[in-house]
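LAB NOTEBOOK - FOLDING QUEUE
OPERATOR: T.R.
BATCH SIZE: 2
PURPOSE: Compare the predicted structure-token outputs for two unrelated chains run back to back under identical settings.
PRIORITY: normal
REVIEWER: second-year student, initials M.K.

ITEM 1
FIELD SEQUENCE / FIELD STRUCTURE:
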Amino acid sequence: MTDLVQESSATGRQRMPRAFWALWTGSLLNRLGYLIQPFLALFLSGRWHLSPGTVGLVLASFGAGAVVSQPLGGWLADRWGGRRTLVAGLLATAATAMTIPWAGTLPTLVGAVVLYGLTVDLYRPALAALVVATVPGEHRARAFGLIFWAVNLGSAVAGLAGGVMAERGFVLLFAADAASCVIFALVAVRLLPPDRRAGARDGGRGGAGPVSDALLWAVTGTFLVFAVLLVQAYVTMPLIMLDQGLPATAYGLVIAVNPIVILVVQPLLVGRLASWPRMPVYAGSLAVTGVGFGLLAAARDVPVYVLAVLVWTVGEIGVATVGPTLVTEIARPGSEGRYSGLFGMAYGASSLVGPLVGAAVLDAAGPTALWVTCAAAGVAAAAAAVALRGAVVRRTASARLG
């Protein structure tokens, strides 16, 4: 852990700024309450007694809101300020979360889930913008890696606690999730510096906005492929394992490898990943992720599944460490929130696209074809990232000069 809380520099060992640790601590505390999304399907089927098809439609409504959440949060962060947007987004998430358990009709429930999806990621682009504002450029990859590690630690604990809470009543899940958002908001108000005036954030640089930035959309496209691959771990992989005669406990064991590997391996890798050139790390991580899913084509028992999860998790660590940093580096000054929001929109889009594409390939061609397609998609995304390297290098060099 010592290596996690210190920075390498030419002048010795330099600690991260205090404001960064406020963001890191808030992220950890917030993720300890990450209880609604993992257990929402159980709430819908158990409390509401909805059919699987209806559950899928309600979850899709969450995805529809989530697609808009990060771009909206990024726009607010650049126009309104990172700390204000972070606090407002967290409080809005807490409020919308508590509307779900009290919904009285199915249309009301769907509306509450859409609102929750719309607010749940408002804070993420603001968080990225605040990292840019508080952490020197040469240390940002490590900063994003540390936050990713904290998020996974909190999620692992939340998964264990959520099962216990769900048995005592689903309202506890929503209350705990809302409380964690409020706590993060209080940490931000207490420990983060006030936002600068909007004029000070504009950067004084003209040019097209992020919506018309072809390089941003190209990088985001590669990230969308990555996100769609990850969705298969929670949608098609469990279905295939059950069809192979493996029990649900086997799936639970296999999928638990992912957070365990992140918690153990990322502290060992984050320093190296942060010091290497961005695009080769990003492209290589995309390829490793695809290869990991491709290994599932040979999986018939738990050990092979575990190996596949281990491989793709190493790729996930690389993408999660370098991807957010890369996007803030190609962003025009004063646009980091909007760039991060459009990039993060891929997560929401993957929650809509991933299940549809994965299920369609599985139904039409079977599991082997699905996993081979996943491998090909990961390698293709990596090749696209390699092709973008020159444009990214020119953009980042121009940013440093300008």
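ITEM 2
FIELD SEQUENCE / FIELD STRUCTURE:
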Amino acid sequence: MLSIALAGKPNAGKSTFYKAATLADVDIANYPFTTIDPNRGVTHVRTECPCLTRDERCGDEHCHDGKRYVPVELIDVAGLVPGAHEGRGLGNQFLDALTNADVIINVVDASGATNAEGEPVEPGSHDPMDDIDFIEEEMDMWLTGIVDRNWESVERKSRSPDFDMDESLTDLLSGFGASNADIQTVLRGMEYPEDPIQWDAEDREKLAREIRARTKPIIVAANKADVADPANLQRLLDSEKPVIPTTAEGELALRKGAEAGAIDYDPGDDAFELGEGVSDAQRQALDGLRATMDEWGGTGVQDALDYAVYDLLDHLTAFPVQDASKWTDGSGNVLPDAFLLPRGSTPVDLAYAVHSDIGDGYLHAVDAKSGRDVGDSYELDEGDVIKIVSTAK
């Protein structure tokens, strides 16, 4: 399962974002380090279900009238403060919690109501632009420190006649989630001395920054957008970083309201409908949220999750079935499974994602939408429905 980590300074709204996205019960408080150990839960990214092309909806629990929700892991990491890579605020422990994530959402307090340390201040008195590069810089410098401290092992290995730079750096950085392919890609784009002994601090820092950017891409969630100064919010949006305005509190209110049956709302919708039993005070508060959603096309929480997976990680959703005509599994369930795969994946990759035995016994595949066989090298597209024929059962 893909893993998304929420990072940022204290009080930026990470735990509220986490609770809104997972409906898990977590502590939310207005003081630094409310979260110590990372919270881990399941949230979903949203895509169109292929059942929209058929006469009836699939009825899967993760399909809401053609809105398909695909599970991913969400990690809420404790707040980071400046100097985290040097150990401030238990920073090394908190940064280490990010190593298993595939992508990171940097939750920024767009209202400027918290200072660099995450302490409450007068709204607008802190410039949120100061926080936009914060997580990236702390992670880059933290990884640089790891590379520096372990570089001697690379130098020792380089004295061997069968030394391989790619393999050596993969060993060094595998704990950060860097594969041999990642190392090869990064090195191809760098100029560096062939002899590791000749590498200087600048070379090692560049390596660390490039590896972090490739293995831990970052999107910024400009949280508390509903109470932020519009000028500050626009400055965030005009930056070179991918930024999505969010109101985690608004999303949490809608999710709780929908859970209670007071609101008709699915995560990622750009609007909601009020049900019965909503008080005048609740209606007034929701009217304010409605105006924010009208301006930004929703609360932004689902948009941030979707952008992280489908845009930054460039993944797609594929649906394996056993019956190509009915789009069912062996028990007659319509479109029961959805898998997130990197763009460029093939039916063989999908087979292995389903189960290693299915992949090992792979024979051929059928595009269930067209009923035609597809080759082993066929590149899957978003929403493909694929029958995999395998010797494995």
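REVIEWER COMMENT (ITEM 2): The mean pLDDT is 92.
FOLLOW-UP: none requested
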